């Protein structure tokens, strides 16, 4: 034991000793993190059977062991460029690539915890996940999904529920590169545009629009102050010719709005509406989605203004141009250019449209490269559909699986009971990720009619899907889940499953069955004959996981007895189960 650490750990009191203890523990935590980083890098250079690679793993185990001599839990807090233990920095990387802290932070993970008893199997799996996410690689699934799939016993994580303003600003700066303006060479401040709208208004609802002061000022003075990338103005053709002076363009927009508000000449209104639609398109193509959204918000508000005449045709003309395929695609190109705040500004723009924009927005999902942008587009579509999933059903046959997965996700967000059979049909989709998303959507429906589709997935050819289906079924229909899991453990194919899946089934059996499962689990756990020893106490270990999942006092008593077993495997399973249920001290 380190003398400095040993001298401050026992019976410490007072602030000075507490600070010394934290400092000493932080040094051990730093050792763990540094070896973890080196081991992840080694996975890119050496094969798993290489002695150097194996040496890093052994050293990582030693570092964990040194820390767990003094603490039961190693909690690492996550910031964009650093990791910390009890407020002490243990890792820092200011680069964007191969940044372990940034990898966690951008997927919403704010703490990673390692419990005493973490196994080499778990650390190897954890390192494999980090290897997939390192080096700027775009993952089909984020780190949270990958960690959830593994379901480590001794490695847990904490997600942020609501970002602070500081975290939101940091994440925006991290996720999007600033694009220089060709006009003055200065950075485009799109983040300000992204926060210009404090109240979105959807035109086809019954409530009147609520337009913030920031939106009201965007079309005129706000537009004049915002630098924009160069655009060929000849791309906007027609009777309206866009001026080069942004201040003048803002003033013209105000005039167009006043004409629509007070005009009685339908011919003039149509001409002005056409010109205003061109202004909206101009701003979109320039990359200024915030100004375009501000104009649309005011146009939509005309329909509720008691001073306005019959402006329905004018609003419809502007709306139709704003949701046209080429304009929506242009907005998507702005997002993919990585302009800071462009996702937020795009959401403000799209939320001014109505559900007739759904086909164009779904088409945008096929083109967007940024995962956060696709998620934002899905949120908008789900909102525009107003609880009706029918407009999305045709896209379940889209040729690209990732679009189908997004559509299934949106149907789960909309929760339209009429679409439940269509979501259930996606459980049979050829792509594994679509099938998993279908299970998530079915779980969100919380409907009895969803249960047969979930049960169907218990026999999926992919092990991860079977495991997800089991968890969802145990939550949605415990009684049916208990019967299904009992059939599994008693079936002839059970012995051929991998150990991880067996453990999962026993755990879910205990969770779903509770007291009904206790006699079966207890009988399996108590077997200590020659046959069990020849099998390596496998059934007893599995039964221990099931007992722990019941959460019953009788089960905890059996686990406490098993914790004294001469079998290392049985003893460790019982200790792990007691730790999970908090029954160790009872």
Could you explain the architecture of this structure?
With 586 residues, this protein is mainly alpha-helical. It folds into three domains: 3-169, no CATH class; 176-365, no CATH class; 477-581. Helices cover 60% and strands 5% of the residues. The chain contains 29 helices and five strands. It has helices at 3-8, 15-42, 51-68, 100-106, 120-133, 143-150, 165-175, 190-194, 213-225, 246-262, 266-286, 289-302, 312-322, 325-336, 342-350, 358-365, 371-384, 401-414, 420-425, 432-445, 451-456, 463-476, 478-490, 499-513, 518-526, 530-534, 538-550, 553-562, 568-581; strands at 73-78, 82-85, 88-92, 109-115, 155-159. Strands 3-2-1-4-5 form a five-stranded antiparallel beta sheet. The longest helix has 28 residues, at 15-42. The protein is globular. The chain starts with a helix and ends in a 5-residue tail after the last helix.
What's the structural blueprint in terms of helices and strands?
Blueprint: H1 3-8, H2 15-42, H3 51-68, E1 73-78, E2 82-85, E3 88-92, H4 100-106, E4 109-115, H5 120-133, H6 143-150, E5 155-159, H7 165-175, H8 190-194, H9 213-225, H10 246-262, H11 266-286, H12 289-302, H13 312-322, H14 325-336, H15 342-350, H16 358-365, H17 371-384, H18 401-414, H19 420-425, H20 432-445, H21 451-456, H22 463-476, H23 478-490, H24 499-513, H25 518-526, H26 530-534, H27 538-550, H28 553-562, H29 568-581
Antiparallel strand pairs: 1-2, 1-4, 2-3, 4-5
């Amino acid at each position: 034991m380190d003398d400095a650490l040993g001298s401050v750990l026992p019976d410490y009191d007072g602030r000075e000793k507490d600070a010394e203890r934290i400092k000493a523990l932080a040094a051990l935590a730093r050792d763990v993190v540094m070896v973890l980083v080196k081991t992840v890098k080694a996975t890119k250079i050496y094969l798993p059977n290489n002695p150097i690679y194996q040496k890093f793993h052994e050293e990582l185990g030693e570092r964990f062991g040194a820390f767990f001599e003094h603490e039961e839990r190693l909690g690492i807090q996550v910031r964009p460029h650093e990791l910390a233990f009890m407020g002490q920095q243990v890792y820092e990387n200011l680069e964007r690539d191969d940044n372990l802290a940034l990898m966690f932070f951008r997927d919403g993970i704010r703490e990673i915890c390692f419990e005493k008893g973490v196994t080499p199997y778990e650390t190897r799996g954890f390192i494999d996940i980090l290897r997939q996410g390192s080096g700027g690689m775009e993952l089909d699934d984020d780190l949270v999904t990958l960690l959830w799939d593994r379901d480590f016993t001794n490695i847990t994580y904490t997600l942020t529920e609501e970002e602070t303003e500081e975290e939101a600003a940091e994440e925006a700066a991290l996720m999007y590169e600033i694009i220089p303006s060709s006009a003055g060479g200065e950075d485009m401040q799109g983040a300000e545009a992204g926060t210009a709208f404090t109240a979105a208004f959807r035109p086809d609802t019954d409530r009147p629009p609520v337009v913030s002061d920031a939106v009201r000022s965007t079309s005129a003075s706000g537009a004049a102050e915002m630098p924009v990338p160069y655009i060929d103005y000849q791309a906007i053709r027609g009777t309206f010719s866009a001026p080069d002076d942004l201040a003048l363009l803002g003033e013209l927009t105000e005039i167009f709005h006043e004409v629509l508000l007070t005009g009685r000449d339908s011919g003039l209104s149509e001409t002005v509406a056409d010109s205003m639609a061109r202004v909206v398109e101009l701003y979109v193509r320039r990359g200024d989605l915030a100004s375009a959204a501000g104009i649309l918000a005011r146009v939509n508000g005309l329909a509720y203004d008691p001073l306005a005449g019959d402006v329905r045709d004018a609003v419809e003309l502007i709306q139709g141009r704003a949701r046209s395929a080429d304009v929506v695609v242009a907005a998507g190109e702005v997002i993919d250019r990585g302009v800071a705040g462009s996702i937020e500004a795009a959401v403000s723009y799209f939320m001014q449209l109505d559900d007739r924009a759904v086909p164009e927005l779904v088409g945008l999902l096929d083109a967007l490269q940024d995962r956060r942008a696709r998620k934002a587009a899905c949120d908008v579509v789900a909102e525009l559909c107003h609880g009706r999933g029918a407009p999305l059903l045709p896209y379940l046959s889209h040729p690209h699986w990732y679009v189908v997965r997004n559509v299934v996700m949106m149907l789960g967000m909309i929760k339209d009971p009429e679409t439940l059979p269509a979501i259930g049909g996606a459980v049979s989709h050829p792509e594994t990720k679509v099938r998993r998303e279908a299970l998530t959507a079915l779980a969100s429906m919380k409907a009895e009619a969803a249960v047969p589709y979930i049960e169907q997935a218990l026999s999926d050819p992919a092990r991860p899907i079977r495991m997800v289906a089991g968890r969802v079924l145990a939550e949605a229909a415990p009684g049916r889940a208990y019967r299904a899991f009992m059939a599994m453990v008693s079936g002839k194919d059970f012995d051929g499953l991998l150990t991880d899946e067996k453990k999962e089934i026993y755990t879910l059996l205990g969770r779903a069955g509770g007291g009904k499962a206790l006699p079966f689990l207890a009988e399996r756990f108590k077997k200590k004959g020659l046959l069990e020893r020849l099998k390596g106490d496998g059934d007893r270990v599995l039964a221990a996981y099931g007992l722990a999942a019941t959460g019953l006092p009788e089960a905890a008593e059996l686990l406490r007895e098993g914790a004294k077993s001469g079998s290392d495997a049985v003893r460790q399973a019982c200790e792990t189960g007691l730790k999970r249920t908090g029954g160790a001290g009872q």
